[in-house]
Amino acid sequence: MPEIKAFRGIRYNPEKIENLADVVTQPYDQITDRMEKSYKEKSPYSFVHLVLTKYAEGHDRQKEYADAKRYYDDWYKNEIFLKDTKEAIYPYWQEFSIGDKMYTRKGFTCLVALEELGKGNILPHEKTLSKPKADRLNLLRITQKDLEPVFLLYTDTKNTVNKALDKHCTKDPLFEAKDEKAVTHKIWAVDSTAVIDKIAGVLKDSIFVIADGHHRYETAYNYRSELEGIDPAHPANYKLITLVNIEDPGLVILPTHRLIMNLPEFNLEEFLKRTNEYFDIKKTDRASIMNDMDTGERGTFGFYSTITAYTLRLKSLDAMKKLLPDRSDEYRGLDVAILHTLLIENVLGIDPSKIEEHVRYERGADETMRKVDSGEFQLALMMNSTRPEQVKQVAENRERMPQKSTDFYPKLISGLVFHDVAQ
């Protein structure tokens, strides 16, 4: 069963850092080289110096790992960072808008006892890649700091956890910062043993599903496994996490659209003929495609090219049952599974082993279609969002979704609070 734990968080010293927005960053795997440069120009104390970026090309990575440790040691010595004197859990709210609608996503940051992913009550929902895990492991070995939380979902239909924490979030937060995406991040500290014990009790039989941070979780587990024979109280037995209730009204998943390229013999008439075996096809246009897709029906997609646009609605799941006989009904009903199995692999004939040669991913609908309009890509396959309950169902079946199945928005900001894994 999951064991959550309070910890003495390390965070920026507000007496030294006047504006937290100048130093926090997006998660490492979202940081481009251009963003890295911008962060460093904002402040010499930017957290990007510690988390680095996922873009290692042209970088001396070993030097960067060593520099990250040097930056941390120097900043801690000079009280740029401080360590809380009491163990606490940290309520974390994110306020943001999508279109005209405002949201507040409520979570809290704490530690969780590490267990092998998928073997107990902490479940993945996506596959991982070896290179990011190797990179994060090298950084963790050298810095011995757990810098970024994993984003986990739990189920609390009565909202008991947030009700227990909300009363502690009426005072001014420890930190408040608005990031470059206009998301406001707020964090508090709760060191009440009674509250912490109550929350741990509510969640002790829960299943936690990883929303974001699969590579970071597996890195922490692998690092702990390297430290053979360590004491059960050793801090490396725990991973920094942020927990969000899957029932939270602020939990938003955005769609990730597919851009297609390098198809030497693509023929629209043949594409429509083959697609019609599986889907009902209706003509639409650039301005209407996303609204026409928003029916709430499973297996509804958009096709967009410079000359035409269509909506595609799945006729039945029979083909998915035939092509994926070993998968659960929940997996076969995922839009992302339907799109890849029927449209990308069967209709377009793209071998899954060569998908990187033909498929790219884009979040915004307008930007997706713009990249087709520019001639950079031949066509786009537009998607609706995966629903949070689908993520939970597939994870509980011990199945993993394809890459880029979910885009939880917003991301957890890096640099609010972190954890020391050294003894």
Descriptive notes:
The structure is a single chain. The protein is of the alpha+beta class. The protein folds into two domains: 261 residues, no CATH class; 129 residues, Conserved hypothetical protein from pyrococcus furiosus pfu- 392566-001, domain 2, CATH 3.30.1760. The chain is 32% helix and 23% strand. It is built from 15 helices and 21 strands. The strands form five sheets. Strands 1, 4, 5, 6, 8, 9, 10, 11 and 12 form a nine-stranded mixed beta sheet that branches. A hairpin with a 2-residue loop joins strand 4 and strand 5. Helix 4 packs across helix 7. The chain starts with a strand and ends with a strand. The model has no long low-confidence stretch (mean pLDDT 94).
Content of β-strand: 15-25%
The 3D shape can be described as: globular
Q: Provide the structure class.
A: alpha+beta
Overall pLDDT confidence: 94
Q: How would a textbook summarize the main sheet?
A: 9 strands, mixed
For the record, the count of structural domains works out to 2
Q: Tally the helices: what do you get?
A: 15
User: What is the CA–CA distance across the termini?
Assistant: 25 Å
